[in-house]
Amino acid sequence: xxxxxxxxxxxxxxxxxxxxxxxxxxxxxxxxxxxxxxxxxxxxxxxxxxxxxxxxxxxxxxxxxxxxxxxxxxxxxxxxxxxxxxxxxxxxxxxxxxxxxxxxxxxxxxxxxxxxxxxxxxxxxxxxxxxxxxxxxxxxxxxxxxxxxxxxxxxxxxxxxxxxxxxxxxxxxxxxxxxxxxxxxxxxxxxxxxxx
Length: 196
Fold this sequence. Notes:
This protein has nine helices and no strands. By secondary structure, it is mainly alpha-helical.
């Protein structure tokens, strides 16, 4: 039985919402590495949802796809640091913040990478999970209005730009156009076609 266009559109819209939320988590992992939080800062509760196993599995797979340039199935330190370098450049961070971000991400890499000096999928998932409290403190300090409005704004920016028929949802074509336009974590474009 064929799915109706409405159902497909709804699935693409939900996938886009989930992707924007994953992007926010990864951005916050990197941003929090460059801007240490006060020990007394509370942890934003949105981190509980962001660090659920199914979400982190998708984030890990996406990062490996984006950063694993030699396609070894693991990340070297050089591959791993492409993300904070691209994020610092995108945000036009001061050299001090960029250096702090890179130093913290190097420290995280060394803490979680195995004896082989590579981050496996499971080690990367552990790193992302354990960065949760740091992300939560960052969100409390820098996004006091709560995470929900950030999610809505992020998704709204996607639909404003890619919802060509202005029906408030992304159909398959609109979703694929958005995915192809998104830069990878290393700053490069994904290129044409859908991302898994």
